[in-house]
Amino acid sequence: MATKTFTVEELSHFDGQNGQPAYVAIDGNVYDMTNVDAWQGGQHHGNVAGKNLSAAILKSPHGKGVLNKLPLVGQLTE
Questions:
Q1: pTM of this structure
Q2: If both were cysteines, with which of 24, 49, 63, 71 could 16 make a disulfide (CB 3.0 to 4.6 Å apart)?
Q3: In this predicted model, what pLDDT tens digit does every residue of 34-46 receive, in sequence order?
Q4: What is the Cα 11 distance to its own chain's centre?
Q5: Residue 35 to residue 76: CA distance in whole angstroms
Q6: Which residues, including other chains, have CB under 8 Å from residue 29's CB and lie 6 or more apart?
Q7: In DSSP terms, which residues pair with 29 in a beta bridge?
Q8: Distance from CA of residue 54 to its chain's centroid?
Q9: Distance (Å, whole) CA 5 – CA 35
Q10: Which Gene3D superfamilies match (predicted)?
Q11: CATH superfamily of 4-76
Q12: Burial code of 14-25, b = ≥16 C-beta within 10 A, e = fewer?
């Protein structure tokens, strides 16, 4: 179970650039996208890692169903 908490500022450092992991927040949960081929370089269809993408995932063709396959690494605090 995820126990780490991230502020918005802390999350922004996990952008998939310069050797950093690629993390995204969705509905308060932080997921690791680093090993997802479609997220190489920290970007996927105009979305960038290190951000809260709760609104963006609602517009995606796969929706939230894909989240069950991703490593949960923590929680986003506001």
A1: 0.90
A2: 49
A3: 999 989 999 898 8
A4: 9
A5: 20
A6: 2, 67, 72, 74, 75, 76
A7: 26, 75
A8: 9
A9: 21
A10: Cytochrome b5-like heme/steroid binding domain
A11: Cytochrome b5-like heme/steroid binding domain (3.10.120.10)
A12: bbbeeeebbbbb
